[in-house]
Amino acid sequence: MSQSSGAHDETGATESKTSAASTDATLNARVKSPKRNGSNKWIHIIIAAVAVVAVIIGVTVARNSGDTDGSAGTANTADTVTIGLKLAPVSLDIRHQSGSAIEQVLIGNVYEALLSRDSDNKVQPGLATSWDISKDGKTYTFHLNRNMNFSNGDRLDAEDVAWSINQLKERQYYNANQVASLEKAEVVDANTVKLTLSSPDSNLLWYLTGRPGLVFDKQAKYDAKTEAIGSGPYTVESFDSSSRMVLKANPKYWGTSHKAVTQNVILRFLTDDNAAVNALKSGDVDVLSPVNATLAKSLDSKTYKVSAADGSDKYVLAFNCANAKLSDKRIRQAIRYAINHKEIIASRGNVDYALGGPIPSVDPGYEDLTDLYPYDLDKAKSLMAEAGYSTDKPLKLTLTYANTYGTELGDQLRSQLAEIGVDLTIDYVEFSTWLQDVHANGDYELSLVDHAESHDFYKWTTPGYYYHYDNKEVQSLYAKALAATDDASSNDYLKQAAKIVSEDSPADWLFGYRVTVAYNRNISGFPEKLSQTVLPLWAISKAQ
Amino acid sequence: MRFVCRRLLLFAGALVGLSLLVFALLRILPGDVAAVVAGTNATAEQLASLRSQMGLDKSYAAQYGDWIVGLLHGDLGTSVVSGKAVAAQVSSHASVTFPLIVFSLLIALAIGLPLGCAAVLTRNARLRGVFHVIAIVAGAVPALWGGLLLILLFSKGSGLLGLLPSQGFPDAGWSAPLSALAALMLPALATGITAGASIMRYTRAAVGDVASSQAVDMAMACGMTRRQAVLRVALRLATPQLVSVIGLTFAQMVTGVMVVENLFALPGLGSMLVTDVGNRDLVAVQSELFLLAAFFLFLGLLVDLLHRALDPRLKNATVGSGEVLA
Amino acid sequence: MNGRIRTLRIVARSMWRRASGRYALVVMGLWLLVSAVSLVWTPYSLLATDGFDTWGSPSSSHLLGTDGVGADVLSWLMAGSRTNLVIAVLTVVVAAAFGLLLVAAMVSCNSAFSSASVVVVDALISIPTVLVALILSVPFGASAAVIVAACGFAYGLNLARILRPSALLAARSAYVESAIWSGASPIRVFFTHIMPNTLPVLSVQLSMSAGTSLLAEAGLTYLGVGVGSGVPSWGHSLTTSVRFISIYPLAVVWPGLVVTLVVIALNLFGDTLRDAIDPLTNPALREAA
């Protein structure tokens, strides 16, 4: 007994071990207590209990020490890396299925786009090595890599590129509306493709790093929901949206720079935050992306690297401008003054960043607009009073949001807004109901959703979108930003537009979600930034 | 025999009613699968084309007809979201849930039957009190809380004694039987203990009733000890009742099982249903709900027939109580 | 009437005399008291949140600590007790009404009707509560009503099946036969002669149903088909406490403990009530009669 607890003190590094040791200490104390003189039965029971605990501890120690022996091996790399993700794509059909989960997993790994993006959200070469833009900004000519092929062996050339883009337009595949100005794609020669635009679009290159730029095999016939044939460094070996996806290095990969370092990458979908952290601790997964910021604090920094990076996720509390109550700008402003963003961020583990406007820090046109509507209860109350409401005569509003975001945000908003005389009812619905009521029908008062996409300012210039925000000045500024041929002036127009939107307060931006990523220190090559939308895995490896 | 026929007829009728109910209830739902697939960037044209692609523009009668014809051919349909056969989806998730239920039930029986009999047998008032307390306390723990306590006690990572995997199911599934069993251990305990307490109560009551009856007195008069009489005669006589109770416990454990599945992040039927309802994948959901409800109806049928077969007293009672009364 | 009150007093006294009965009565009394108090006063308003003080440990300002949004756990548990009280009471009422109706049908004189109802009960009884709740919550959304409906349905069926033997025994007895011969209406016979015979079993079953409905509330709320968000209930408190079990394990202790203690009380209440109202086991009652 004493031996096993001695062994504990030497190796007892983790919480569980020390507390186990303390349990057996109390049991020891009990054995030595005067009760020994009592009935024989009790002694037997206690001895038996102690023995059981001792055996359990012994087994645990033996097992744990076995683990450490195993991990201290040679400096080879393992042939399998397991990554824990939170959201699972429901199918592999990237041309129809919405959501960032599917983009995160497939783009850059299984499917490749004409262009790619780096961890700073900047455009980099992809299937195309270089491109020329005409003076008027309406013609783009892309020069492709040579000798490219798909994972099934089919050749990938200009024919496939033009076909993919024309299909996107014709069939209105997902995100086709992002490249609305794109008219057609034409094959110039086997390695050159020409895109023609109806009007210049400074965002086009960036959009071509995402779904609109993906290149599919014109010849191949396959069920796109359950199979994926792309040109990327990995192929999908198996996929079950309720548990995992297995990626295998593509043996026929055409390139050399993005060739997969690790043979097998297993993506496990862990929706439960606690389960995810436990999986990391027990070594079932090597990487967690994202990890819950609060839980990540329990990870030992010697073994795990935990980091947080800005992303494009914006938690948007939209005010329906077409609603009678909320068409009053004073009420919208009062709500913005009344929300204590710092408190919300603190309760979420103090990782996220305050965001005062529609453009996130990783996108062009970002500037810090948090000073426009600082937390100011007095101002909020006086605005409400002007509009005719107070805590005695509260304004009834309903917040509709999807139950995927947790009840906390709704509870906090209800609590904070109660102080200025807003009686907030929370309608906590399924995401599908939210899509129907809020997004499709625009039938809501307040709505909360995480708009994860990057470069999505156009939603504020589309009056038909569920925000119902219609400001001609913003629309013309955005048009100028798109038409601008140099980045600096484009960014400048975007900044102006974003500031006007924020001043108008058609929404409050609760915070920009920063993704926390945790991985075992024996992992290298994991892309820490923007991993929620694009997660290129070719470089990842695990030292053994 | 008449009873069996009637029971089978009712089973068939219930299935038809069930299919209508499930189909109708699901159509009341707001939102549709096309909107979910198309997401927050969707345009009206995209939605319309998706809807016709998925057959959502057909009339309800046609949709119901398609579904029923498929069911009759043993085809549960194909999920419009994942593109996989519903049958495959159900069976892969059921391979977690059903072993879990069976495992829980075994634990419940292992706890409930001996303790229940012991509670009847013991003459020691104190011991009897202890059994009583066990039954009462164990039966009062919410499955969710029981599961949490077990995680805090035994799980790797967050427990006091890092013995068992706390959450998740091994990737390899049942091809790694030991780790699969280990993954189910804590969840099964969480539901099994509570169910065990209720089985214990029922056993004590059922065996106790028979034990104080003439049958046991008779057996003791013939020279059996009380212990023998209870275990051989009373338990045997209480069996039909216990079979019913166990059948019911099986069905009632499902709530707890779905909770612990969620808590232990197991890819079982519960999470599948919630996901599919969330996606508005109605073709999948209606088949899944129908299949599950049909399974439990069938289980009820089975338990009923078994009960009759085991209880000789019921053999001549062709129907229920009414005739006897009249 | 006087006699009934006297009987009640005897029953209550003999329950109180036993330790388990005393525990049950005290806990249930506390439950009622806290529910009533929570209507007018809780230590903090349910609306009060504090993002800077989340997952607080028990302290003098927050006796049971704070939850993930910094709300006072004790206040939410107190307010939750009234929701749970309503759920338990309604479940018992629905289950009793539904169950007794079925029992009456099953022991009725009309043989076709009675046998049909027996078979219907047998067929439906195997449908799990959670499935009923899931099916109901899909179109109607999560609410306490879904819990009551699902539990009332399931426990009513259960009750019917369990009561049937004793009801049948009574229905077949000589005094019922003589009552029928003497021209008493079937409904009267049921309530005066058959139901009292099932009372011991009924009391146990109903109090267990109340307990089980609390367990079901916790489970269903956790699964998202129980009480809606923002409504205080013990299941809600338990569900919110689960989020960070690995780093704030203490948070899950309180709501679970409350549910367990109350369910124990309800089960004990049923047991002691059965013993107290059964003249066979309660000599005081025999003497009074």
UniProtKB/TrEMBL annotation, chain A:
One of its GO terms (molecular function) is peptide transmembrane transporter activity. It is found in: Cell envelope. Residues 1-35 are annotated as: Disordered. This is Peptides ABC transporter substrate-binding protein. Residues 13-26 have a biased composition (Polar residues). Residues 122-452 form the Solute-binding protein family domain. InterPro entries: Peptide/Ni-bd, SBP_5, SBP_5_dom. GO terms for cellular component: ATP-binding cassette (ABC) transporter complex; cell envelope; periplasmic space.
TrEMBL record, chain B:
InterPro entries: BPD_transp_1_N, MetI-like, MetI-like_sf. It is a multi-pass membrane protein. GO terms for biological process: transmembrane transport. GO terms for cellular component: plasma membrane. Residues 94-307 form the ABC transmembrane type-1 domain. Its main location: membrane. PROSITE patterns: ABC_TM1. The keyword Transcription does not apply. Keywords: Cell membrane, Membrane, Transmembrane, Transmembrane helix, Transport. The chain crosses the membrane at residues 100-121, 133-154, 174-195, 242-269, 289-306. This is ABC transporter permease. It comes from Bifidobacterium moukalabense DSM 27321.
From TrEMBL, chain C:
The chain crosses the membrane at residues 21-41, 85-107, 119-138, 144-163, 247-269. One of its GO terms (cellular component) is plasma membrane. Residues 81-270 form the ABC transmembrane type-1 domain. It is a multi-pass membrane protein. One of its GO terms (biological process) is transmembrane transport. Signal peptide: none annotated. Keywords: Cell membrane, Membrane, Transmembrane, Transmembrane helix, Transport. Belongs to the binding-protein-dependent transport system permease family. This is ABC transporter permease.
